[in-house]
């Protein structure tokens, strides 16, 4: 009988309440889940997500981007060093409100994923629920994708859909999508951590 492979050590970057991080931490408690949340880093001090991570016994760090001024790569090198010291295998963006440089994206290519509140390639950027309502689409949702240098353009790993109801506003639609995000992100991380989904030559390969 073959031994169970070691779980992948996952780092999570947050900037706020960390609700998707919590869904990942809860999923990682299940026996057989192929990843452990080993480190949560916030670029903003004292956010609620740090306290929530500590409640799970997860190591946390704050690397405030503001002292670095406009030198985004210097900030990212500090983040990268913390990830290296903590022996992180995979990186998850969970409400991390910073645009990453090509240097950092290249360094974590194929090992960094993000969740976006739309059915990519539709509605990139911000205010996705407003964009969906203004477009009059019948379906909306969320996508987990590998991170590439172009914003919200990475190959999609998994998606979840919700109906857009006639009386929806941004708040009701966002809440319905968030419920799906909390299920989709753990499922997608499991796909990547187990090796069932890999990024090769710009596309997702399943095996």
TrEMBL record:
<comment type="function">
    <text>Catalyzes the transfer of a formyl group from 10-formyltetrahydrofolate to 5-phospho-ribosyl-glycinamide (GAR), producing 5-phospho-ribosyl-N-formylglycinamide (FGAR) and tetrahydrofolate.</text>
</comment>
<feature type="binding site">
    <location>
        <position position="114"/>
    </location>
    <ligand>
        <name>(6R)-10-formyltetrahydrofolate</name>
    </ligand>
</feature>
<feature type="active site" description="Proton donor">
    <location>
        <position position="116"/>
    </location>
</feature>
<dbReference type="Pfam" id="PF00551">
    <property type="entry name" value="Formyl_trans_N"/>
</dbReference>
<feature type="binding site">
    <location>
        <position position="72"/>
    </location>
    <ligand>
        <name>(6R)-10-formyltetrahydrofolate</name>
    </ligand>
</feature>
<keyword id="KW-0658">Purine biosynthesis</keyword>
<feature type="site" description="Raises pKa of active site His">
    <location>
        <position position="152"/>
    </location>
</feature>
<comment type="pathway">
    <text>Purine metabolism; IMP biosynthesis via de novo pathway; N(2)-formyl-N(1)-(5-phospho-D-ribosyl)glycinamide from N(1)-(5-phospho-D-ribosyl)glycinamide (10-formyl THF route): step 1/1.</text>
</comment>
<comment type="similarity">
    <text>Belongs to the GART family.</text>
</comment>
<dbReference type="InterPro" id="IPR036477">
    <property type="entry name" value="Formyl_transf_N_sf"/>
</dbReference>
<keyword id="KW-0808">Transferase</keyword>
<feature type="binding site">
    <location>
        <begin position="97"/>
        <end position="100"/>
    </location>
    <ligand>
        <name>(6R)-10-formyltetrahydrofolate</name>
    </ligand>
</feature>
<protein>
    <recommendedName>
        <fullName>Phosphoribosylglycinamide formyltransferase</fullName>
        <ecNumber>2.1.2.2</ecNumber>
    </recommendedName>
</protein>
<feature type="domain" description="Formyl transferase N-terminal">
    <location>
        <begin position="8"/>
        <end position="189"/>
    </location>
</feature>
<dbReference type="InterPro" id="IPR004607">
    <property type="entry name" value="GART"/>
</dbReference>
<feature type="binding site">
    <location>
        <begin position="18"/>
        <end position="20"/>
    </location>
    <ligand>
        <name>N(1)-(5-phospho-beta-D-ribosyl)glycinamide</name>
    </ligand>
</feature>
<dbReference type="InterPro" id="IPR002376">
    <property type="entry name" value="Formyl_transf_N"/>
</dbReference>
């Amino acid at each position: 009988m073959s031994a169970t492979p070691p779980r992948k050590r996952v780092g999570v970057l947050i900037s706020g309440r960390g609700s998707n991080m919590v869904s990942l931490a809860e999923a990682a408690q299940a026996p057989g889940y192929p990843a452990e949340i080993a480190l949560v880093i916030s670029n903003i001090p004292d956010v609620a997500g740090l306290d929530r991570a500590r409640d799970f016994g997860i190591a946390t760090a704050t690397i405030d981007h503001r002292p670095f001024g406009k030198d985004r790569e210097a900030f990212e090198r500090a983040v990268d060093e913390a990830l290296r010291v903590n022996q992180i295998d995979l990186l998850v963006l969970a409400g991390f409100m910073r645009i990453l440089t090509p240097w950092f994206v290249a360094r974590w290519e194929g090992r960094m994923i993000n969740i976006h509140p739309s059915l990519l390639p539709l509605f990139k950027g911000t205010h996705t629920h407003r964009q969906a309502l203004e477009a009059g689409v019948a379906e909306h949702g969320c996508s987990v994708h590998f991170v590439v240098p172009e914003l919200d353009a990475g190959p999609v790993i998994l998606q979840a859909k919700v109906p857009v109801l006639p009386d929806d506003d941004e708040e009701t639609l966002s809440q319905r999508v968030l419920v799906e995000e909390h299920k989709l992100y753990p499922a997608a991380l499991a796909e990547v951590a187990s090796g069932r989904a890999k990024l090769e030559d710009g596309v997702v390969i399943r095996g």
